[in-house]
Amino acid sequence: MGGKLMWEIDNFMRTRTKRRRKDDVYAFSQYISMSADKARRVIDQIRGHSYEETLMILELMPYRACYPIFKLIYSAAANASHNKGFNKADLVILKAEVNKGATMKKLKPRARGRSYLIKRPTCHINIVLRDTSYFEEFRKFMINLSEDDRKRVLIGLEAERAYLDILESRWDKK
User: Fold this and answer.
1) Torsion of CA 41, 42, 43, 45, to 10 degrees
2) What is the rounded distance in angstroms from the CA atom of residue 43 to the CA atom of residue 69?
3) Tell me, what DSSP letter sits at residue 35?
4) 12: helix, coil or strand?
5) Residue 142, in any domain of the structure
6) Cβ–Cβ < 8 Å for 27, 43
7) pLDDT tens digits, residue range 104-163?
8) Contact at 8 Å (CB) between 132 and 92?
9) What pTM, to 2 d.p., does this model score?
């Protein structure tokens, strides 16, 4: 490997590790009064889609769980554009998970002084959006490489090994 390529890979890997935390946006919603299974049915349909596709999917789905999820994704995108300055068109749903929340219990009066227990399940929804403009930067980086170097970097493990070799070679020099 040439010195320039090692420097470029090192520089790219360094920016990648720095940006990994910066290009994620989180939004949480807790104690939504619906079953986790019903919310999970909707969440499974939108995971991995872009922000705009997700809004269209949620508007057209006939489930009651769509509205709170729609509000949450809209809120996460607003957080991304306001707090971090991301473009909403570049956002992708990286992680979407539904967890079971506390069960609310109510008593319903019945005949002869009895009462029946009514259980209202709740759920917690976590959404993580990622800015995909990073992948555009990676594409531009790959275009500038020669064909042989591009093949090495595309193999993934090869790029990680090259990066680790660069780090080890720096430590060997005294």
Assistant:
1) 100
2) 8
3) -
4) helix
5) no
6) no
7) 999 999 999 999 999 999 999 999 998 887 667 767 776 777 777 766 666 665 556 666
8) yes
9) 0.67
CB proximity list for 165: less than 8 A, separation 6 or greater: none
H helices present in the chain, as ranges: 3-22, 36-46, 51-60, 66-83, 133-143, 147-154, 157-172
The C-alpha atoms of residue 139 and residue 50 are separated, in whole angstroms, by 19
- Residue 87 phi, psi dihedral angles, 5° rounding: -85, 130
Phi then psi for 165, rounded to 5 degrees?
-60, -40
Q: Is residue 61 part of a domain?
A: yes
CB 77 within 8 A of CB 88: yes
CATH of the domain at 67: 3.90.470.10
**Structural domains counted in the chain:** 1
What value does the CA radius of gyration of the chain take, rounded to a whole number of Å?
24
CA–CA separation, 51 and 96 (whole Å): 12
- 51 is a domain residue: yes
Q: What is the pLDDT of residue 18?
A: 47
Under 8 Å between Cβ of 27 and 73: yes
Residue found under tokens 């990994």: 20
